[in-house]
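Review form for a predicted model. The reviewer records the input and the model, then writes brief findings.
Reviewer: anonymous (R2)
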Amino acid sequence: MSEAGLTVGGFYKHFASRDDLVVEALAAACEEMDHSVLTAQPTLKKSIQTYLSEAHRDELESGCPLALLVNDTARTTDDAKAIYAQRLEASLALLEKQMPEGTEGNLRAKAILIYSTYIGAIGLARAVADPKLSRQILSAAATELISLFPAKKSRAAAA
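Model under review:
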């Protein structure tokens, strides 16, 4: 705030409430994700590898806001939850498009499984102090997710 020339009081006067500030910050973080390496991968395998990477684990500032703010959003307003849900829906749709041609079953359910694994694995990998365990969490989650989808052309590439 000092770099922007604002005081704490002056900063908060720009928002009607703390909840409004949270909604604006979450919306901005989700908008930035639209231009992120996390959403720009050509295949499902590459998306899984990128999301469940040590680089993503270590980059909190530019990482996925859904993973970073999952617990905070659960305790906030419906407006913030709506922003979170919009970003989640976009992420799920992207995963569905990246699934290989011929993937059987409910694609949405599979996308939810992948994203749930993303959030849990990246959260656990960030939460442990042991670097070896952190790497094992990321590697195991990525390996198991990738094994669910045989390497074929993605739906997005086929379109």
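Findings: The chain has one domain: 8-158.
Further findings: Residues 22 and 80 are 7 Å apart (CA to CA).
Recommendation: see findings above.
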